[in-house]
Structures are given as structure tokens and as C-alpha cells.
Amino acid sequence: MLKNFTNKSVLITGAATGIGRALAHELANRGAIGYVTALTTKESQIVVDEITSSNGKAIAAELDVGNFKNIEKMIDLVVSEQGQLDIMINNAGVAYVGESYDMQIETIEKLAHVNFSAVNVGAILAYTQMKKQGFGHILNTASMAGFLPTPGMAVYAATKHGVVGLTTSLASEGKDFNIFVKASCPGFIKSELMNKSSKVSNNMSDYLDLLPEPIDASIAAKTIIDGLSKKPVLIFTPPYAKISYFLNRFIPSFLARGGNDIMEKYRQATGVAK
Description:
Layout: E1 9-12, H1 18-29, E2 33-38, H2 41-52, E3 57-62, H3 68-82, E4 87-90, H4 105-133, E5 136-141, H5 154-174, E6 179-186, H6 192-197, H7 204-208, H8 217-227, E7 234-237, H9 239-250, H10 252-270
């Protein structure tokens, strides 16, 4: 298990805002060398400037995970400059909130492509490199939606269920090769993800108003990075995420009723007839 992060090389996708940005800062605080990537170098450079101003180590890079070849090139760059890839964090993601019957095919494709397919590619490419070097850690960003029924976010939830399935399976494969694979399953985090998704989702604020108060991304990031040093494959934050996980395993009807209540209130708020 990973105890010391000093000079560890880390590649983080989707690190411009939210949990990705917070993870980049947390790793820098622990001495890691972070390759901070985003859709544009300008976005990633802002985060790198924040890190280096506090004497942290970070490199800004452009990475659109929607182009899988770019992920491969980025991993190759880290290895060529650092000699190895110690930690791969597949964090880039998009969201959609709303009625499933309102979704466009293009939106479904984007959710599946970025949230699931790109995570698969990033994880497998990193896994292949780590198999060669004989060690490594992979962290995939999932969500509470990866193990709970999440009405109003059905396709998003499907992609996150897939990330959890990928992670638990790859974790079993990697043990013999000293490769540790984990997934973070955060609850509601203060993030730009939902704000950005409002561009393709109707009535976003109505849905968010029904959810628990979000926690600060920096708090979540500390818990997640701490989790890399522990045995469990799934890392939960805040505490109610872990409680929800076990409730769903043993009393699934309880959380299903909660999801139904949220959807009913959402439809009332948006004027959609039941």
C-alpha cells in the first residue's frame, strides 16, 4: 500500500476544477509530482500555478480523454520524463440531470464515452504500463451513483456502476502484479461538474436543491488520498456515502424509496405531471 507520496509521479485527468483540482492540490501537499490535465493547457496551468506558488511540484498539460490516443500519449510522456507512472487518476467526467425521455442520443453517447469508456482506456493503459514496471496505483472516480439507484441521473448512474465494476474486477487482477486499483465513491461535492452539466440539463437547480448539503472538495480529496494507503477497494466520502452503500446492500428498498421521493419532488418542482 502507498504510504509515501514524495516524488511519486501522478497523472490526473479532469483536474481543472472540483474534485480533480482538489486531488492535485492534496497530492502536491504530500510531495507528489502531478501532471495536471484538462481540456486546455490554460485551464490546467491555473491549477499548476496555484500549486507551484505553494512550493508544490506540478506540470500542466492538455488532455481530452474523449480521444483515447491522447491518453496513451500522456502516459508515455509521464513515463519518458519521470521514468515510471506511480499513480493514475481517471477523474474526468460529465453529468446530466433530468428526465430520461428528454435526453438526446448525443448526450447519452458523451456520458458513456467520457465517464465509462475513457476511464476503461485510462485504467487499462495505466495497468499495462504498471505491469511492465512491476507496481502502481490506479484511482478511478466513481460516485454514490455507482452503487445506488439514482433517478433523474439514470445514464450517469449506469456509467458510474460500470466504473465500480471495472475497478473491483481490475483490483482482483492486479494483486499479483503489485498493482492496486481503487475507486472513490463520493457523495455530493462542491464542484463545477453539476454547473457545467446544466448546459445540457433542464431544471438543474431544482434537482440539486433536493440533495444533501455538498461537502468541500478539499475535504473529500484528503479522505480519498488517505484511502490509497488502506485495503478497501472502494473509498467513501463523506461518511453517509459508506452508510448508504451498506444500507443498499442489506435494505435496498429503504434507499429506493428515498430515490422515489426525490424524483417525485423534482417533478413537482418542475411542473411535470406524475
